[in-house]
Amino acid sequence: MGMVFVRAMRLIADLHIHSHFSRATSKTLDPEHTFLWARKKGISLVGTGDITHPGWLQELREKLVEAEEGLYRLKPDLEKAMAGEIPGSCTGPTRFVLSGEISCIYKKAGYTRKLHHLILMPNMDVAERFHKRLSRVGNLASDGRPILGLDSRDLLEMTLETSDEAFFIPAHIWTPWFSLFGSKSGFNSLEACFEDLSGHIHALETGLSS
Fold first, then answer.
1. In sequence order, what are the residues at sequence separation of 6 or more whose Cβ sits closer than 8 angstroms to the Cβ of residue 189?
2. For 142-162, what is each residue's pLDDT tens digit?
């Protein structure tokens, strides 16, 4: 992804979050408040979360504008509306990257597998194409983090076919129940999970279990 904004600087990023369309989340988990709290916490790059949810994707189109290549910002009028709640010491730009988590539950090699994956998309149009393709697999409107009966390897393939600029990150890889290396439902190696596509995994999220 062409992240010109972050190329030559150190930053704090939080890529794995959710929206108010996910279960057990705040009703104020919208772009405005995500921006507000990112500013307060010194986060320069924050994920949107839940890009596969149709309602959330529409809200993002209404409230974000493209900034640098691959990155978005809150619309200026919304930034201005939130400015009064941001302390003067919390300055600096905050950018959004389109992100979403998908839960895969499926059978492989005689075991039930339960894995979560974080996916980053380069722009809204690509995210729309990804949504349309995944909507043929399962119900994307039921939750911000959809549960799909899809092999992780096949989800990775669909991601790469949608865009070669998309980024696929196995999420919280050491949690027991829903992760790549989880003791309850995961795998013992990257290759056992993603097979011939393992070389396209360039990052892993260790998660709170670390």
1. none
2. 999 999 999 999 999 999 999
